[in-house]
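Case study 2.
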Amino acid sequence: ALERLCSEKNTKKKSILERVSEFMKNKEEKAKAERSRLRQWPVQIKLLPVHAPFYEGANLLIAADCTAYAYAKFHDEFLKDRVVLVGCPKLDSTDYAVKLAEIIRRNEVQSITVVRMVVPCCGGLEMAAKRALEASGKRLPWQVITVGTDGTIRE
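Prediction:
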C-alpha cells in the first residue's frame, strides 16, 4: 500500500511538473508569435533617411498612422517582411511624394504596399505614393489595401 501511495504521489508530482513545463512552453511560443515584426527604426516618413541599408531589396509598406490601431492583425499580415514608412497627410504638413520618390529612386525597392484608412484624408497618402512611384521612373509591383473604421479590410 505504501509503494502504491508513493507511486501515486510521484505520478501527481510528475503530472504537475509536466503541466508547468507545458504551460511554460506554450507561454514561450505565444511570446514568439506576439513579437513585433518591425525591421527598422525610425518609421515616420518625416524621420526616415532617403538611403539606408534596410531599403535594399525591401518590400515597402507605406502605412497611414491609424491603420496599425484600426486593424488588429497589422503586424502579422502587413508588417512581416516589409520595411514600414508611416505618415498622416492630415497631420503632417509636408508632401510625402518628394521624399518617397527619392527613397524609391535611390534604393533597390522590390514592391510597394499602401495601407490606408477608408477616410478621405488617407487618399492623400495613396496619391503621394502613386506620384512618388511615377516620379522615381521605376516600375514596381504596387497595391493599395483599405482598412475600414470598423477594422475590416475593404474591397
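The chain has a mean pLDDT of 88.
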